[in-house]
Amino acid sequence: MNAILPGIALAALSASAFADGRTVTTLTGRTYADAEVTKFEEGAVIISYAGGVTKIAIVNLPPEARAALGVDDFLREKQKESAEAKSAQESALAAKSASFDLCREIPASDYPPELFRQIATYNTGVNEANHWLTLASREESPPLVQDYKARADKMRQKLDRDLKSFNEYKALLGGAGRANAAKIATAVSEGLPYIGMPRVALRVSKGEPSAIHINQTPFGESEQWVFKSERGFEFYYFEGGRLTGTQQ
Question: How many domains in the chain?
Fold first, then answer.
């Protein structure tokens, strides 16, 4: 990107010269008489001289030529401007990001091993939601911001359900006793439902059902959970919060 010197600086540089009559000699031995700076480009300086106009790479200028042409002063000023612009951009991004409520992971170290699989699944969802929120915080296009936020909100809704199931599952294992807790955790981990399996354990194991049908019977409330599978549909039946039968 070309960077044109401000008028005052350009005038000062145009008037600057060596004591031998504004002659610039590069490290490669090229000499330019009546040299005047017209503008800077990335890594180079444009000068007019007695023979016309030319571009000289900054690395080919000796220290005295850099000083006389104001190269170092210009680079310092551009570096300062770049740092200030970067700082302002980061501050704006931080302020914008603060308006997005990022999701929080579950610290796996706080829970027993049988919960690690559920924690890992939940935290993967957290990372995905935060990914979309971060993109939204950095995006300037309103349609894209809306799209990213919609994706994050959809994942957040799933995370809310997963977190509720996780907390219920954690409480279930905590009150089930060592042997029963191990049986439940193994069934959940291996995806092997059994008659009498708690409802929340099946949800943790298989995820959210495609549909839940609730029926009132003379003996209370029963539920039919429907899951889609490669073979079609799977049906699970609950009474009193416990699995009573399956159909595949």
Answer: 3
